[in-house]
Amino acid sequence: MADAVLFEFLHTEMVAELWARDPDPGSGGKKKSLSVLEGLGFRVGQALGERLPRETLAFREELDALKFLCKDLWAAMFQKHMDGLRTNHQGTYVLQDNSFPLLITMGSGSQYLEEAPKFLAFTCGLLCGALHTLGFQSLVTASVAALPACKSLGSPQV
Amino acid sequence: MAVCIAVIAKENYPLYIRSTPTEDELKFHYMVHTSLDVVDEKISAMGKALVDQRELYLGLLYPTEDYKVYGYVTNSKVKFVMVVDSSNTALRDNEICSMFRKLHNSYTDVMCNPFYNPGDRIQSRAFDNMVTSMMIQVC
């Protein structure tokens, strides 16, 4: 298994490259870079959603798929489990990670809060893609209250 | 020794379908199509059953006079259907299971190929070769 830090470096460069090439610093350009990153994450998520659950038994319900995301997918990507999974029983799930590996290197606290969203776009796409392969159309958004903890909100609909 | 192998997407259209005696292809296409109903029945039965049996391998779907049809469903609701010759009684359940596992592994490799768009027909030569090897195992 390759060193986790290799992916972190690649991810940092991806974000830097997509941000640097943006000639229009207004909000239009920002949205395009974010959606490119999400698109990248989506395709990767689709492939991972096919490859990782290969040996596991069939998922019987939505909760099984979410548990798979929190444990197996997160462990494969970041070598740790998700710290918390909550639901409002109406179709929205909140996934909480208290020390997200892609944000840890930026320091803790609220110093780089405005920069954080672009580092979460790829991961949002990843979750969305994996859920899509497992059969759920979903909308995933992420929010950061204080580095390096972050929350993702997913609302899967079959 | 399989005579027909099909990969069906979760929206029930074929991603890949191939049969060995290339005349009479339509008959196999029709068999695979009818077996989809049985697959759906098994999947929904699996969901409602209280037994903790959540296997991916569905087993024998239905036997006809010349052929037997086996099914397998992945977690992403992609179905694999295999039609084998009834006369070849030497094939046992666990052999069919291992053939399906090989199919699943090859399908995962196709999925991870960046040049493949999920939902397109499978055109990978590696997948083709693997399916050919399964079809001409015993001659």
UniProtKB/TrEMBL annotation, chain A:
Subcellular location: Endoplasmic reticulum; Golgi apparatus, cis-Golgi network
Presence of the UniProt keyword Transport in the record: yes
GO CC, alphabetical: cis-Golgi network; endoplasmic reticulum; trans-Golgi network; TRAPP complex
UniProt KW keywords: Endoplasmic reticulum, ER-Golgi transport, Golgi apparatus, Phosphoprotein, Transport
GO biological process: endoplasmic reticulum to Golgi vesicle-mediated transport
Function: May play a role in vesicular transport during the biogenesis of melanosomes.
Subunit (UniProt): Part of the multisubunit transport protein particle (TRAPP) complex. Heterodimer with TRAPPC3. The heterodimer TRAPPC3-TRAPPC6A interacts with TRAPPC2L. Interacts with TRAPPC2L.
Family designation: Belongs to the TRAPP small subunits family. BET3 subfamily.
Protein name: Trafficking protein particle complex subunit 6A
Organism of this sequence: Myodes glareolus
UniProtKB/TrEMBL annotation, chain B:
GO biological process, one term: endoplasmic reticulum to Golgi vesicle-mediated transport
Annotated localization: Cytoplasm, Perinuclear region; Endoplasmic reticulum; Golgi apparatus
A Pfam family this chain is assigned to: Sedlin_N
Keywords assigned by UniProt, alphabetized: Cytoplasm, Endoplasmic reticulum, ER-Golgi transport, Golgi apparatus, Transport
Record SUPFAM superfamilies: SNARE-like
GO CC annotations, alphabetized: endoplasmic reticulum; Golgi apparatus; perinuclear region of cytoplasm
Highest rank taxon of the organism: Eukaryota
InterPro entries documented for this protein: Longin-like_dom_sf, Sedlin, TRAPPC2L
Function according to Swiss-Prot or TrEMBL: May play a role in vesicular transport from endoplasmic reticulum to Golgi.
Recorded family membership: Belongs to the TRAPP small subunits family. Sedlin subfamily.
Subunit structure: Component of the multisubunit TRAPP (transport protein particle) complex, which includes at least TRAPPC2, TRAPPC2L, TRAPPC3, TRAPPC3L, TRAPPC4, TRAPPC5, TRAPPC8, TRAPPC9, TRAPPC10, TRAPPC11 and TRAPPC12. Interacts with the heterodimer TRAPPC3-TRAPPC6A.
This protein's name: Trafficking protein particle complex subunit 2-like protein
Protein's organism: Myodes glareolus
